[in-house]
Design a protein that fits this description.
Number of strands: 13
Shape: globular
Largest sheet: 5 strands, parallel
Strand order of the largest sheet: 5-4-1-12-13
Low-confidence stretches: 1-7
Strand content: 15-25%
Mean pLDDT: 91
């Protein structure tokens, strides 16, 4: 009897899912925690089924954009790593914080003091960094030392109009060996010390999602965001008018 009821429940679930996808023309995928878990000797491990899922989305005719807060490598190197892991992904399909931040810095004639990962520094090679008038902070990993944080603090506190630009505001993320503190923790420390509010470039900033939508040429209500972060992925997308889905991989912690 129970075996006969199961397909009915599954059918209703599929019908409800189809209803949720009605009118969808574009999919925005988070990467870390959704497609793969970073870390380890190979740079990460694909989450089971994720490589095939990307292929199916591309074959479906839906427009696809990858939207990431990854700031431990240039966009080119990051995409090259994903390709080595087996993903069908191109650099021009990825919306990432560092290139977006560079555009903002150029538009506003800002000269950044960088507190970022060593592998991300080349993204900022075309910018004047002498006599900095702002601080840019990303996921610097081991570069988040007291010395480096204090140096960034001194630059900010010494500015008449301190500007702190943060490449995301995540609290933590998952690597193959466990959870790791993210840039938002250190961003909050500088905000508190300098009595400033950071400008976030990356998820959950509305401008960041709008950039991904513009590149797909779809309206917010025609797109769905799929991510593992209930605040920065799901919440950020919904604030922008998109639909959103949280996966149970990556940093997903149930009711915690």
């Amino acid at each position: 009897m129970h075996q006969l009821q199961a397909p009915g429940r599954a059918g209703r679930a599929m019908a409800e899912w189809a209803k949720q996808l009605a009118g969808i023309k574009g999919v925005v995928l988070d990467i870390s925690g959704v497609l793969y878990d970073s870390g380890g000797e190979g740079g990460g491990v694909p989450i089971p089924g994720s490589i095939e899922a990307v292929e199916k989305i591309k074959a479906s005719g839906l427009k696809l954009r990858f939207c990431t807060n990854e700031t431990q490598a240039t966009r080119g190197k990051f995409v090259a790593k994903l390709q080595r892991l087996g993903f069908n992904i191109l650099v021009n399909e990825v919306t990432a914080p560092a290139p977006a931040a560079c555009r903002i810095l150029k538009e506003r004639n800002l000269r950044p003091h960088l507190l970022v990962h060593d592998d991300l520094v080349p993204e900022f090679d075309q910018l004047d960094k002498a006599n900095p008038n702002c601080v840019v902070i990303g996921d610097a990993a081991d570069n988040f030392s007291y010395k480096n944080l204090n140096e960034a603090f001194r630059v900010l506190i010494g500015l008449e109009n301190p500007i702190l630009i943060s490449l995301g505001r995540g609290r933590y993320y998952k690597e193959t060996d466990g959870l790791k503190l993210d840039v938002g923790v250190y961003m909050k420390a500088l905000e508190y010390a300098c009595d400033v509010q950071a400008e976030v470039v990356g998820k959950p900033a509305e401008r960041f999602f709008q950039s991904a939508l513009a590149e797909m040429e779809v309206e917010p209500q025609q797109a769905i965001m799929i991510g593992d972060d209930i605040v920065n992925d799901v919440g950020g997308a919904q604030q922008c008018g998109m639909r959103a889905l949280q996966v149970r991989t990556g940093k997903y912690r149930g009711n915690k």
